Amino acid sequence: MARLVRIYAQRKEQDWNTYALAATVEEARHNGSNPAVPDWLRADYDAAWHDLFALGLAELPGATSSELIDSIIAVLALGKGRPTIGRMAMLTEDERQEMLDGSGWG
């Protein structure tokens, strides 16, 4: 993860793919059947998340594509320990609308 974030930061070009990949990995970590981050990797993993979180905060105001906005929001939510909101941000707009319609909020 650290290398991915470092490469992304050096590119200076907004791209939703890095955020989406990181969010997917982090979301999968919260699945009880997946292993925890190993102790020897924990500090680097946490530092990479910190850096990606900061990049997301900096890039969100200028983000224009729905994919970039949703992926950044997913990273920010997951980085703040809000996995449910992170998962919802990773859904398509149609999937979110369907969820709201099914709950009576649509």
Count of strand segments: 0
| Overall domain count | 1
Radius of gyration: 14 Å
DSSP summary: helix tally: 6
Content-based structural category? mainly alpha
N-to-C span: 37 Å
**What oligomeric state is this?**
single chain
Average pLDDT, all residues: 93
Helix share, percent:
over 70%
Give the uncertain stretches in residue-range form. none
- H/E element sequence: HHHHHH
Beta content comes to under 5%
Written overview of the protein:
It contains 6 helices and no strands. By secondary structure, it is an all-alpha fold. It has one domain. The longest helix is centred in the middle third of the chain and has 21 residues.
Provide a concise account of the structure shown:
This protein has one domain (2-103).
How does the SSE layout of this entry go?
Blueprint: H1 2-11, H2 16-29, H3 39-59, H4 66-79, H5 83-89, H6 93-103
Features:
single chain; 106 residues; mainly alpha; 6 helices
